């Protein structure tokens, strides 16, 4: 099928979008499954009293979100690469659901920022404890590194001399930070107030990606529909 310049641009844009989505989806799903079935964390899910903890809730969300993102990628790649209208329509519907969900989550997270921050802080504390007691699990260490680099904090205490996870902490930004950095639980608990621009930037950036993908999907759908009509009209005229 011959696409015009705009259609080709949208096709390649969707391919790049799906690559990014696939990487993020694999990270979410892989980390979630590791935290769910690792020997260090499996007992948490087997204790009924802990089933409603922030750790269990967030791990479940990671697994579900990662799986959904990979499903979206399958439809997106198949629809864009093969120019299949049915796959593109499913892809567009899934993107719309994700966009609406992102808006709802963003509004709820900001309106309940204190509770949301405490929940993420509890999740971080669980990761920190598992890392310390589990002998430095590399996957948990990667998760801690993400928290530390994103929020520029270091462990529970922030004192690098005594902090047991200092290997996962970011490089100090000044002389004082060689000895003392921000405590991560405190930073996380107040991140929506103290780093509102960072949080809003994350939601806005994700929203822009979803909107661009939706626009490109709509353009591809229109072009494939037009091409299908032209092909049908041609064969009707010939035969």
TrEMBL record:
Stored InterPro entries: Tetraspanin/Peripherin, Tetraspanin_animals, Tetraspanin_EC2_sf
Taxonomic superkingdom: Eukaryota
Mode of membrane association: Multi-pass membrane protein
Lineage: Eukaryota, Metazoa, Chordata, Craniata, Vertebrata
SS bonds (residue pairs): 154-169
Membrane-spanning ranges: 12-34, 54-75, 87-110, 198-221
Keywords assigned: Disulfide bond, Glycoprotein, Membrane, Transmembrane, Transmembrane helix
Source organism (scientific name): Epinephelus coioides (Orange-spotted grouper)
Disulfide bond keyword on record: yes
Family of this protein: Belongs to the tetraspanin (TM4SF) family.
Primary role: Structural component of specialized membrane microdomains known as tetraspanin-enriched microdomains (TERMs), which act as platforms for receptor clustering and signaling. Participates thereby in diverse biological functions such as cell signal transduction, adhesion, migration and protein trafficking. Regulates neuronal differentiation in response to NGF by facilitating NGF-mediated activation of NTRK1/TRKA receptor tyrosine kinase and subsequent downstream signaling pathways. Plays a role in the inhibition of TNFalpha-induced apoptosis.
Subunit note: Interacts with SLC19A2. Interacts with NTRK1/TRKA.
Record's protein name: Tetraspanin
Cellular localization per UniProt: Endomembrane system; Membrane
GO terms under cellular component: endomembrane system; plasma membrane
């Amino acid at each position: 099928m011959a696409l015009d310049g705009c259609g080709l641009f949208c096709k390649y844009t969707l391919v790049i979008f799906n690559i990014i989505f696939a990487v993020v989806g694999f990270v979410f799903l892989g980390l979630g499954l590791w935290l769910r079935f690792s020997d260090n964390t499996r007992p948490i899910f087997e204790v009924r009293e802990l089933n409603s903890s922030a750790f269990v809730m967030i791990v479940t969300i990671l697994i579900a979100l990662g799986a959904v993102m990979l499903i979206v990628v399958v439809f997106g790649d198949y629809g864009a690469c093969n120019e299949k209208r049915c796959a593109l329509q499913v892809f567009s519907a899934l993107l719309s659901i994700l966009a609406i969900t992102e808006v709802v989550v963003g509004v709820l997270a900001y309106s309940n920022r204190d509770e949301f921050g405490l929940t993420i802080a509890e999740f971080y504390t669980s990761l920190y404890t598992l890392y310390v007691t589990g002998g430095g699990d590399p996957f948990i260490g990667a998760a801690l590194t993400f928290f530390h680099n994103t929020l520029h904090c270091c462990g529970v205490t922030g004192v690098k001399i005594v902090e047991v996870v200092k290997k996962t902490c970011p490089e100090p930004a000044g002389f004082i930070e060689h000895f003392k950095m921000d405590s991560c639980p405190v930073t996380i608990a107040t991140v929506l107030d103290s780093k509102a621009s960072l949080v809003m930037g994350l939601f806005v950036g994700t929203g822009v990606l979803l909107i661009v993908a939706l626009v490109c999907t709509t353009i591809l759908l229109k072009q494939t529909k037009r091409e299908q009509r032209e092909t049908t009209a041609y064969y009707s005229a010939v035969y």
